[in-house]
Design goal:
Distance between the termini: 70 Å
CATH topology of the domain at 2-142: Serine Threonine Protein Phosphatase 5, Tetratricopeptide repeat
Order of helices and strands: HHHHHHHHHHHHH
Structural class: mainly alpha
CATH architecture of the domain at 2-142: Alpha Horseshoe
CATH class of the domain at 2-142: Mainly Alpha
């Protein structure tokens, strides 16, 4: 009888502890939902800001960061929540936590092009070019197809008007193509610095074959210089000429082609390229926009 009483007492306290733990957990979840509902407007502000329709407001970004910190507690394993959190931390100037959030996003979705690209931008901004190059390589190998499908779905959830929907998708596609091109150029520059010329030609061929990419002239120019280093003079000249066809004012391409022709003894032709180099309009290099790409979490999108 005494043993039964001891067992009963122990079981009572075990069940009581379990009840209190479950109750506390439920209360915590309810509290999280209340906070999320209160902060939801700030999360939507971030969507508008990323679309260029809102002014930068640090208070709203801080509130949105609190929102996206709590969201995975009630909806776990949401890569785009971590991506949005990384975006908010970046706007707040907290690069360390921004990188941590994007790394969590990439871990949960290995096809998250924007996470890799944004990490590359942040590391580059910090002057950590090796880490930046590693992430740009991941961005290039991942590609943008999965991201584009995501934006198409986000547009369907977001816009009633079909015209606005298509315009928004086109803008996002332009952002993705620009980011992919910038990633490729960063990787090519890194390979050139390391003297990995075969890798430059291979990567250039792959991305040019893929089709829709910006700055094809620059990519051909990198490939031309690499082919020259490998003594593939014919291939090098073809790449330089393609770069010139794409950009008639590409002074450096004319100049490198002229040097190549001069070296192989075609002096008259070389002189013509040198002249073209002098006549080409000296274009100021356009600094590419290096904005982080924002992926609006689909469950946050109200109809517009």
């Amino acid at each position: 009888m005494k043993i039964l009483k001891i067992i009963f007492n122990r079981m009572f306290f075990i069940y009581l502890a379990a009840y209190l733990a479950i109750n506390a957990s439920c209360d915590k979840t309810k509290a999280d939902y209340k906070v999320l509902n209160w902060l939801r407007g700030s999360a939507r502000y971030v969507n508008d800001y990323a679309d260029g329709t809102g002014k930068k407001d640090l208070v709203s970004f801080y509130e949105a960061s609190e929102y996206y910190k709590k969201l995975p507690r009630v909806m776990p394993d949401l890569p785009f929540s971590f991506g949005a959190l990384g975006y908010c931390y970046y706007q707040l100037g907290d690069f360390k936590r921004s990188k941590e959030a994007y790394q969590k996003a990439a871990l949960r979705n290995p096809e998250f092009f924007g996470a890799y690209y944004n990490l590359g931008l942040i590391y580059s901004q910090e002057g950590k070019e090796k880490e930046a190059s590693d992430y740009f390589k991941k961005a290039v190998s991942t590609g943008v197809n999965s991201s584009l499908r995501y934006f198409v779905l986000a547009a369907e959830k977001q816009f009633i008007d079909i015209v606005r929907r298509k315009e928004w998708v086109r803008q996002k596609e332009k952002e993705l193509v620009g980011a992919y091109s910038q990633s490729v150029k960063n990787v090519l520059a890194g390979l050139e610095a390391k003297g990995q010329f075969k890798e430059i030609i291979y990567l250039s061929q792959q991305v040019l074959k893929a089709g829709d990419i910006m700055d094809k002239d620059v990519i051909c120019f990198y490939a031309g210089k690499a082919a020259y280093q490998l003594k593939g003079y014919k291939q090098s000249l073809e790449y330089f000429n393609t770069a010139i066809d794409l950009n008639k004012n590409y002074k450096e391409a004319y100049l490198e082609a002229g040097r190549l022709l001069d070296e192989i003894g075609k002096k008259d032709l070389a002189a013509a390229y040198f002249k073209k180099s002098e006549e080409a309009v000296n274009q100021e290099p356009i600094e590419p926009k290096r904005n982080l790409i924002f992926y609006p979490p689909i469950y946050e999108l109200g109809r517009r």
